[in-house]
Write a structure and sequence with these properties.
Blueprint: H1 3-13, E1 31-35, E2 43-49, E3 52-63, E4 74-80, H2 96-111, E5 121-123, E6 127-139, H3 144-158, E7 160-165, E8 168-178, E9 186-193, E10 196-199, H4 203-206, E11 211-217, E12 223-229, H5 236-257
Parallel strand pairs: 4-6
Antiparallel strand pairs: 1-2, 2-3, 3-6, 5-6, 7-8, 9-10, 9-11, 11-12
Helix pairs in contact: 2-3
């Protein structure tokens, strides 16, 4: 954290503004979701929030169910932070940021019970559908969390099962059958800088946050998951305030997922 930059951001926030002219609770524009971005995945979506761009793909394959859930399918989420999207990202095994990003997206989908895993069983204890969600950053201008989570939900909404022929997956033959989805979780990343709360942080703001809270919720207001980040502690009052802000902004985000 650069003290001069941090103090400059705080001084602007004290006036009710941000570095790029937005108000504290404004998202960058445009916000777009381009579904079916790649034909090689069973479902895909490219999400743009301002200058941040993320591509999410869904792959469906057959695998073996976990021993403790023999009659359910499985979910796996991975994130790749490409150097082309941010010069600070490096090639190689996933770093802490990539692991946390994948974990937040995974937790939102899993804890909301968005996917009916009990409907993905092919043969009890032996075979099931595995839903793999791959996140790929195209341009990191801040707030990869919201963009990735939005892309994952949109890609899952579009995903169609490939055909099964002689017990094997034929990826050239899409069945038209969609995933069994029960709800539409939305993730909003609320950040605290000083005594101020903001959403959709830019890269500069992300470098200077004191704490953040990724909040996953459903349309009926049900809270599904929380993920805290940043070095500073959060009081119960902070958490309640951040959850309330996230719930309100989730209404806006949810409109982009309806089609």
């Amino acid at each position: 954290m650069n003290d001069n930059e941090h103090n400059h951001i705080l001084a602007i926030l004290d006036k009710g503004m941000r570095l790029d002219g937005r108000k504290p609770l404004d998202y960058r524009k445009p916000i777009t979701i381009q579904r079916g971005f790649t034909s090689t995945a069973e479902g895909s979506a490219k999400v743009t929030i301002g200058e941040t761009e993320v591509l999410v793909g869904v792959k469906l394959d057959l695998g073996k169910p976990f021993p403790d859930t023999p009659d359910e399918g499985a979910i796996m989420v991975g994130a790749e932070l490409l150097p082309l999207s941010n010069p600070e990202f490096e090639l190689g095994p996933p770093g802490i940021q990539a692991i946390e990003l994948a974990r937040i997206v995974d937790r939102g989908i899993r804890e909301s019970k968005m996917i009916g895993l009990n409907k993905l069983s092919v043969k009890s204890g032996e075979q099931c559908w595995v839903v793999s969600i791959d996140i790929c950053t195209l341009n990191d201008a801040g707030n990869l969390i919201d963009a990735s989570a939005l892309g994952a939900v949109a890609a899952l909404q579009e995903a169609k099962f490939p055909a099964l022929k002689d017990g094997k997956v034929d990826y050239q033959d899409k069945t038209g059958k969609k995933l069994p989805l029960a709800c539409m979780p939305v993730t909003v990343n609320v950040c605290k800088i000083g005594n101020h709360f903001i959403v959709d942080p830019s890269t500069e703001e992300e470098r200077n946050i004191d704490a953040r809270l990724a909040v996953v919720s459903l349309e009926d207001g049900q809270l599904c998951a929380l993920q805290k980040g940043g070095d500073a502690p959060l009081t119960p009052e902070d958490i309640n305030k951040m959850i309330a802000l996230a719930m309100e902004k989730a209404k806006e985000q949810r409109t982009y997922l309806k089609h």
